[in-house]
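Minutes, project check-in
Item: structure for the 273-residue chain
Input as provided by the requester:
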Amino acid sequence: MSLRVINDIPELADVQGLTFVPTMGALHDGHLSLVRAGLEYGEPVVMSIYVNPTQFAPGEDFETYPRPVEVDLEKAEAAGASIVFLPDHEVMYPKEDLPVCPPLPAIATEPKLEDCFRPHFFTGVCTVVARLLDLVQPGRMIMGEKDYQQLRVLQEMVAADRNRWPEVQVLGSPTIREPDGLAMSSRNAYLAERDRERALGLVRAIEAARSQDDAGSAEARMCQVLEDHDLRVDYAVVRDADSLLPVTGSPSNHRALIAAHLDAVRLIDNQAL
């Protein structure tokens, strides 16, 4: 069956209750793994491709974010997606009925991770994902664990409003990595080949954290490894995997999370400890 591309709301009427994979395009194997994970439920997979302006701050890379639409459609079809929802800005943010951000859950404001360094981000993400969920009305939504705080925020957002989304499950899927261990990201396209060795500092920092006996030592060791790779650190922390709040003592249901800058490119990664 050939890929069906939907651009407008009325065409979505017969796709409700399926598995949904929201993306901003520039698809890589990480995105495509979400399609394959969705197919395991025995239902067609709907993917969306929309570069959401409200989750970018002034000076971030909204204008330069890669948009290889035709290539993305080929990749989506090859991975097994049945439908791609490809809306324009007027469909997502109609002037006569602008979407409103749902109440942000505590995990979007309290951990002082992405919420601190990109304070606009979760308002934009929750606004656009709430709009997509209302339009697509899936049975489940699958998202990658690479953006771990985003995953947890959306899980909490949906769980907090079961009147609006009574059936939707928000499921995480493991991060897919390059052969050298670097977490796959659309922004990896910004990296020159000579930069990859430095970028691997994120992976090596998390591996170094595993050898430490407590969260404080693990955080200090991660920061040192990142600095050794000439990366500017936003955060390198060990947190409770559910709440993303600080922890003490030896790791148990803990997660290491890193955000760091390689010159103009901001990279994130996380792994369970």
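Outcome recorded: The beta strands are 4-6, 19-23, 45-49, 83-85, 140-144, 169-173, 232-240, 254-262, 265-272.
No further action items on this chain.
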